Structure formats: C-alpha cells, structure tokens
Amino acid sequence: MHFLSKNDKFLNMLSLISLNLEEAGRFFSESKITNKEDLHVFSKKMKSFERKGDSYVHELIISLNKTFVTPLAREDILELAMKMDDVLDGFEEWSLRVEIYGLTHADEFMVTFVNYLYESSKEIAQAITMLSNKKIANIRENVIKINEYETECDDLLAKCITNLFKIEKDAIKIIKYKELYEMLESVADSCEDVADTLESILMRNA
C-alpha cells in the first residue's frame, strides 16, 4: 500500500512517477502474449505508461522552475525523476522491439529478467513512498535489494547469451535474442541508476 505525502507537491510528483513505473512493471511481467494482436496491445499499453510518465516528469520540471524552496536539492529531485523515466523508457522500448520482431513467446530467461525488473520497480516505488513520508533512512534496504536484482540480471545475461550461442544455429534469431536480452539487462542498469541516486540522497539527508 502506498500513501502520498500531504506536505509536499514534489514528493507527491515523485510518488506518482514511481507508482506509474510500478504499475508498468506489473503489466510488463503479467502480460500473456500468444499472438501478434497480443503483441500490439502489449506495446500500445506500455507506450501509454511511458507517455503518462513523461507528463509527470514534464509537470515536475515546470513546478521546479517556479519554486524557490524544495524539500530536497532540486538537482536530486530532477535526477530521481529522470532516472525513473529511463526505466520506463526501457520497458516501452523493449515492448516495441518484440512487436517489431513478432516475438510471441518469451523464453525462460526473458521471464526471469522481467520478474527481476518488476521486483526492482516495486522496490523503487517503496523507496519513493518512504522518501515522500520523510523516512529517508528506511530507503537503504530498498537500495540494497535493487542492486542485488541488478547483479542477478548481470549473471543472467551471461547465462542466456552463453546458452544462445550453444543451442541456436539461426544467425538472425541469435541477433534478435541477444539484443532483447541486452535491452532487458540495460533496464536493470537503469534501475540501479535510480538506486544510486537514492543512495546519494540518503547520504546527504540522513
């Protein structure tokens, strides 16, 4: 359960961005794709999450430019918003790519990647909720978990590419799958960037 702060619009805006990201992560992980129509619906829905996130970030930037006093350093607020937006962009870009490739079956490696990314998005949302409720010290555990998921994704990337070159003979399929695996790992890197920004905020404000 997430609660918005009653005290500050910027922390509320960050919460809205993080909750949209978590919802996108849930949809990303729970979508069942069996045909090209499912792919189109999946890609279109992820685009809607991405556009909503962009609108929140745009609103936040406008408010920052009009406000003198902010609850955190304005560069921290902006960086946190932009880093979360990078994660959302990664979700949307991957969904578009699988639609372009017509991939209607996610292998076990992709499923594992997506589950790690959803868990990371949940940790991000929980951390932002803590931040919005001025419980900054409590975000350390979320930061640690996000970093752990990124490490798992690093290891998974090595495993899935090794397996790909071992069992797959179709060069085109190798190119497609390798790119899709690497895109998912890149989203995990973006989640880690959010964690790094949270850790910097923690160090400066704890």
TrEMBL record:
State the source organism's domain of life.
Answer: Bacteria
Please name the Gene3D superfamilies in this protein's record.
Phosphate transport system protein phou homolog 2, domain 2 (1.20.58.220)
In Pfam terms, one family for this protein is PhoU_div
Instruction: Write out the similarity annotation.
Output: Belongs to the UPF0111 family.
Q: What is this protein called?
A: DUF47 family protein
Q: What species is this protein from?
A: Sporolactobacillus sp. Y61
Q: Source taxonomy lineage?
A: Bacteria, Bacillati, Bacillota, Bacilli, Bacillales
